[in-house]
From TrEMBL, chains A, B, C, D, E, F:
Subunit-structure text: Homohexamer; trimer of dimers.
Swiss-Prot/TrEMBL catalytic activity: (8S)-3',8-cyclo-7,8-dihydroguanosine 5'-triphosphate = cyclic pyranopterin phosphate + diphosphate
Annotated source species: Stakelama flava
Taxonomy, superkingdom: Bacteria
Function per UniProt: Catalyzes the conversion of (8S)-3',8-cyclo-7,8-dihydroguanosine 5'-triphosphate to cyclic pyranopterin monophosphate (cPMP).
Enzyme class: lyase
Binding, substrate: 75-77, 111-112
CDD domains the UniProt entry points to: MoaC_PE
Lineage, opening ranks: Bacteria, Pseudomonadati, Pseudomonadota, Alphaproteobacteria, Sphingomonadales
Pathway: Cofactor biosynthesis; molybdopterin biosynthesis
Protein name per UniProt: Cyclic pyranopterin monophosphate synthase
Residues covered by the Molybdopterin cofactor biosynthesis C (MoaC) domain: 15-148
UniProt-annotated catalytic positions: 126
Length: 156, 156, 156, 156, 156, 156
C-alpha cells in the first residue's frame, strides 16, 4: 500500500534519514507554461527580444529559487547544486520554462527543478501583470530524473 | 500600447517607484490545483485525514513562502503582510489550494497570494512524489484583487 | 473558553488578520539564562572581558535573529523593528541575556524579544561547547510588554 | 586551561578551520520543555489532539530552523543535514520537544538539534500566547552526540 | 566629540531606537567602479551588448541585495524599499554602477544603495573572473541623500 | 578569444555545470580598504580599542555574508565553507579588511572571500556614517587563490 515517506508511523512530518544513501550524480528536468493574452505576450516578446532584460530576470529568479528549495519546501534536504539552467521559449499563447538541475548528492533534485520552473513563471507573471491579470500557469511537471536508488524516470 | 512597467526606457529591469502611491488595504486571492494518480491521492487523503500533518505542512510552506515573495520575485516590493490564509480541498483528481493575502501598503499582494499557492502545491508534490512522479500542477491564477489605484478585479 | 487564535474554525493554521488593528508603539522585554560549569564560565568570562568578541558575537546573533523572527516562527507577521538591544550579564553560574524589542506596528514584538534571547544564548552555548557540553538554557520568558489593544503586561 | 576555539590568539571571532577533519556520520539529540498554565495547556492539547495543526506547525518550524542554523549562529559551519526529526510530548505542565539531527560532515550537529528545539518551543509559545503570556521555556540541553574526533557523549 | 551611535554607553552594539523618528521620504544614491583588463572588458561588453544577460544579472543581483540590507549589515533597520534602480555604464577601464534607493521610513537608505552597488559589482566580477582575476572594485561611495532629520547631503 | 562561462551559447545566464569537477581543497584571500576622515577614524579606533564591539560586529557581518554568497551572487554555486576568518587593521586613513575563505569543494571560494570583505567594510561604513558620510571603499581585490584545476594564483 502507498505510504508517505515524509510522515513517521504516528503521522508526524519529519525530514527523512538519507544518511545511509550513496552520493550519486542526480539530474532532473521539469517544465511548465504560462498562458497569456495576445497583448501581454506581445509586451513580453517586445521586452525579451528588443530590450533584453525580461527573460534574464525570469531566469535569474528561477536559478536563485532553485538554490532556496530546501528553505521553501519544508521536508527537502539541503543539496549542493552543481548545475542549474533554465530555458525559456515562446509558444503561440505564452512562454514555456524548462529547468535542468543536477547535484552529486544523497537525494534527488526533482524539487529543485520544479521550484525553478515555478518561480521563473511567477516572475514572468509579475512582469506582465500590469497588462494582463488573467494569465494562467499550467502544466508544471517533472519531465525526467536520473540517478539514485530508484533509478531513471521519464514522463509518459 | 502595452508596456512592461518593470523595464525602464532603455529596457533595464528596476523595482518601480511606488513612493508616491497611497497606503491602502489590499487583498488578493489566488488558486491552483495539483492532479495526481488515484494511488497518490489516496495516500495524501490518508495522511491528511487520518494522520494530520500533510495539509498542515503544505499550509505552513505556503504561508512562509508568501512572506518571502519579495526575496523570490526580483522586482517585487517588500510588503508587511497583515494576513495570509491557505485553504486546501480535495477534488476528484487531486487537491486545490486557495490563498488569501492582505496588506496595508503601497502595492498589491497578487504575487504573495500566487507564491503561496505555488509553494503549497509544490510541497504536496514533494510529500507524494515517492508514490507518483507524474503529478501535474495546473490552473494557477489570480481569482480576485481589491484595493489600490487600479481598483478591484475579478477573474472572468 | 480558551482558544488558539492561530487556528481557524476547522483547526487549520493561518496568519491571523491584523489589517484592522491600529499602528501603535509596542515594546517587549524578554530574558533567559544559560547555566554552565565553572570551567566554561571562566572561559567565557575570559573571552568576554580580556578579549572582547564573545559577548559582541552573541549580541549580534540575537539582533539579527530578532529581524528574522517572522521567517522562523511560521505564524508571526513581518514587523519593521525600530529597536533591538541585548543586555548580557554574568551570574554566579552563567550568563543572563535580556532583550528589548520595539516597533510601531499592528502586532506585538514579544516573539522578536524571545527569539533574540534564544539565539543569543544558543550562540554562547556554541562558543563554549568545546569546554562544556552539559550547559542548560533555562528561564526563557517574557518580562513585560507595552502597547496594543490588550494593553501592558508585566511578568508576576 | 580552557580556551574558546571560536576566538583566535588575539581574541577575534572566526569560523574555525575544519578543512582537515574527516567526514563522518554525526548525530545529536537535544531536548527542552515549555511550562504553561493549565488553561494554555488545555488549549494546546485541544488544538493538537482535536484539530491537528498545532504540533505540525511547531515541528515544521523546528525542522526549517535546523536547516538555518549556520545562518543564525554566526560561527557555525554550513552542514548538509541528512535527517531532522522532532518529537513532541505532553507533560503535566506543558510540552517537551526532543530533536534528532544527523549529517555526514566535518563538524557536529549539536547546534542544529538545539536550534530545532528552541524554535519548536518558541512556536508553541507563539500559538498559546494569547492565552498565557507567562509560559517559561526551560531545560534546553544536549542529550547525546555521536561521531567525530571527540567521540560520543551522553548527558549525565 | 565624535561618537558611534551604534554603540551604547558601555560599548555594546545595538540597533538604535528610531521609534520616535518621523516617517519621511528618503532617497540615497551611491556609486562604484570595477576596473578590469582590456580582455575582460571586451568579454563583458560582448556579453552585455551582443547577448543581453550580463548587465541584467548584475542589476538583479544588486536589486535583490538592496532588499537584504538589514540581513547583511547587522545594525541596520528593516526598511520597506519603495524603489531601487541600478544604472550600469562602461568606462574606458571597466564598468560603473550607480544605485538609487528610496523609502518612506524612519531611517535613511544609504546602506541599501551602497549594498546594491557592492553586490552589482561583485556579480560582474563573478561573471568575468574566468578571464581576469585581477579586477579591482574601487570608489564605492555615497553620492547624495535626501530626507530625514539630518537633511540633504551631497558628496563633495 | 575570451568568453564568459556564465553565459551559454545563446547568451543566456546559467549556473555552470561543475558536476564533473573534482572535490579539492580550495582557499582564497581577498582584501579591501575603507578611507575615512580623521574624525571618523578616531571614532572607530575608539570604539574598536576602548569599547570592543566595533570590529567584532564588522567581522561577524563578513563571516555571515560569506556563508550567504551563493544567495547574493546569482550564478555562484552553494559551497560548504570549512573556514572563514577576517582580519582588520588600521591604516593611516582608515581600515583594511582581509578575508580568508576555504572549502573542500568543486569550485573556488574567491567570491566568498570577496563578499566577506565587501560586507565587512560596508558594516564599518554603517557604524561610522553618522560621523562621516564621505567614506570611500576602495581596492577590493583578490590576493590569492589555491586549489582547483586552474591552479594557484597570486595577485601581481
Amino acid at each position: 500500500m502507498a505510504n508517505l515517506t515524509h510522515l513517521d508511523a504516528s503521522g508526524a512530518a519529519h525530514m527523512v534519514d538519507v544518511g545511509g544513501k550513496a552520493v550519486t550524480t542526480r539530474e532532473a528536468v521539469a517544465t511548465g507554461h504560462i498562458a497569456m493574452s495576445a497583448q501581454a505576450l506581445s509586451a513580453i516578446r517586445d521586452g525579451a527580444v528588443a530590450k533584453g532584460d525580461v527573460f534574464a530576470v525570469a531566469r535569474i529568479a528561477g536559478i536563485q529559487a532553485a538554490k532556496k528549495t530546501s528553505e521553501l519546501i519544508p521536508l527537502c534536504h539541503p543539496l549542493p547544486l552543481t548545475r542549474i539552467a533554465i530555458d525559456l521559449a515562446f509558444t503561440e499563447t505564452g512562454v514555456t520554462a524548462t529547468a535542468t538541475a543536477a547535484t552529486d548528492g544523497k537525494t534527488g533534485v526533482e524539487m529543485e527543478a520544479l521550484t525553478a520552473v515555478n518561480i521563473t513563471l511567477l516572475t514572468i507573471y509579475d512582469m506582465a501583470k500590469a497588462v494582463d491579470k488573467g494569465m494562467i500557469i499550467e502544466g508544471i511537471r517533472l519531465l525526467s530524473k536520473k540517478g539514485g536508488k530508484s533509478g531513471d524516470w521519464q514522463a509518459a
